[in-house]
Amino acid sequence: xxxxxxxxxxxxxxxxxxxxxxxxxxxxxxxxxxxxxxxxxxxxxxxxxxxxxxxxxxxxxxxxxxxxxxxxxxxxxxxxxxxxxxxxxxxxxxxxxxxxxxxxxxxxxxxxxxxxxxxxxxxxxxxxxxxxxxxxxxxxxxxxxxxxxxxxxxxxxxxxxxxxxxxxxxx
Length: 171
Prior knowledge:
The chain crosses the membrane at residues 32-54, 66-82, 118-138, 150-168. This is DUF962 domain-containing protein. Keywords: Membrane, Transmembrane, Transmembrane helix. InterPro entries: Mpo1-like (IPR009305). One of its GO terms (cellular component) is membrane. This protein is mainly α. It has helices at 13-22, 28-51, 69-84, 86-110, 115-139, 151-167. The protein is globular. The chain has 6 helices and no strands. It has one domain. Helix 2 packs across helix 3, helix 2 crosses helix 4 and helix 3 (69-84) runs antiparallel to helix 4 (86-110). The termini are far apart.
């Protein structure tokens, strides 16, 4: 009598998280809304946190303005992404870099910490979250982060993993 040996590899933690996240993201309309709203939420959250006054750090000299509360948020998020997938971590660096570039451009136009800056980011944030909840209403399932807050961080790399699959990059 021969026993069957299971030779399949166990799922990586990132794939387990994607599978769980996918459970409430199967409706095409909800997925489309996520492709629009998740990046807007990340952008607007970074923009909002960027506006919070940060203590002046004399030792940083002329680079003092390049470190802020958003830098700390970015560092923690990127570390988490790195633990899940170095490839998705690398892609998120580019996404966050683009968002940071746009935030700095907005800052140059309306001013850091101005009421206009807060209004821009808060408006985007609120509208994008309304979109997310509409998408989940259409889906008929609650958002994943209501069960586990870490799914707030999974959404952006969940979208990136589809891009990786489409172009044949192992994540």
